[in-house]
Each structure stands twice: as C-alpha cells, then as structure tokens.
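Q: I'm writing a short explainer about triphosphoribosyl-dephospho-CoA synthase for a general audience and would like to include a description of its predicted shape. Could you first generate the structure from this sequence?
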Amino acid sequence: MNSRADELLAQAAVDALVGQLALAPKPGLPDPRDLTARATRRDHSSLRWSARALLPGLTAMAAAARRTGEPSARLRADLGAIGRSTEHTVGLTGGGHRGALWTLGLLVAAAALKPGARPADTTALAKQIAAHPDRRAPRRPSRGSTVSARYGAAGARGEARAGFPHVRRALTALATSRAQGASEPEARLNALLTVMSTLQDTELLHTAGPIGLRHVQAGARGVLEAGGTATEQGAAALTVLDTDLQARAWIPRGSAPLLAGTLFLDTLSR
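A: Of course. Here's the predicted structure. Afterward I'll give you a sentence or two in plain language.
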C-alpha cells in the first residue's frame, strides 16, 4: 500500500466529518441552520473549513499505522504526537473537532492496519491501539477526564478502549433505517439518536449534570420509540427535543464525533 491509500482513508474520514456537520436538524448540535453555529459560537462554514484541516494529520496517522504494522504502544505514541500537532494546526483555522480527531484518528489507523476489514474488525483494532497509554501526553487532566472520574463515565477514552460500542450500534441503526425505507438524512439522524440515547456524554455531565444527561437520553429514546425520524410522530418528537436543547443550551457534543466515525466505517464497508 502507498501514500495514495493513506490519503484516500484520510479523505474518507474528513468527508464523514463534513457529512456529520451537514446533517440537520441535529438536536443541540451545530448544523447548517445556524449561521452562527449556536453550539460552538463558530460560523458553520468555519467548522467545515477546520474539518478539512484534519486531512494532513489523518493521512500521517494512516501512514504511521502502515509503517508500524501492528496496534502497538509505539503506534499509540506516534498517533498521540501527530494528534497534538494536528490540534495546533486546526486551531489556526478556527479550532474545534478535537473529539472527531480522537475518534477518526484511531479508526483511520485501524483501517490502515487491515485494509478491507469489516467494521467490527476495525473497531477491535482501534480498541487494541487505545489500550496502550500515551506516555508522551501532557500530564494535566482534561475536562473530559475530570468529569469521567467524577461521575464514573466512560468518556471518549473509555469509548475507544471498549471498541467504540456506540459506533457499532449506530451502524446497525443506520442499516436498519435504510432497510425500512428511511431517506439517508433520516437514517443518519436515527443513528445519531441511537448514540445519544445511551452515551454517557461528559459534555452534558459537565453542563447539565446526571439529571440533564438522563433527560437528553430519554428525549432521544422518545424519538426512536415514536418510530424514528422517518415517521410523522418521530419527526415531531425530534423537533420538540431540538427546541428543548436549544432553550437549555445543552450540547450533546460527545455524540457528534461518534456519528462521524459511524459514517466513516459505513463508507469503507460500502
């Protein structure tokens, strides 16, 4: 495999992130309806621009995985170093997408280790990579790790070390919705709501506490139990949830990167 293969993997990941950004209406999350991207206070076009700034870093992560050839501690260290450099670059273009870089970086590296693998095998490889500590990482705790420790939530790190269970569930929801006749945006929204319905989102725990998290999870489940976004009742429930989260300024930020990871693996499998 050559550098062109690395670039193609990285481009597929960036396209998945841009696809996630373009999806609407995403309850509580920035989407094209927002000129000012309410959830991040960044213009939506700048979010799309900064998403594309991930491309060199993700390409380098794929190349590092191919060079290393196994989900080793060395590869984990290389990915961490590339990730920190990429965060700096993305910051110069407007910032954002830290969670997406973590999720997509691991999945891109795993896909590079075993091209053509099934999504379940790719997430299993990502789990093996994430199991290694990044010994070069800064020692100061992040907000996410602090919230995880306080509430016992898995967080982004725990999600990866478990093999991205929410990505796997979202892939199933995506396929099921398509088979039931949902449009592609409706199927993707159902996948997002599947993630939101059970994810222990550390951003929500930080801003809304456990009661707020359960409120959002219940709202997402309510849309799905009403038949999903392809039904009249489900679409109405989605509107109620979106309006509610906007009014409360609650942001289910942890779900968005996992949807991007879902769309990336879906693209590879198709």
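A: For your explainer, you could say: The two ends are 20 Å apart (CA to CA).
Q: Perfect, that's easy to follow.
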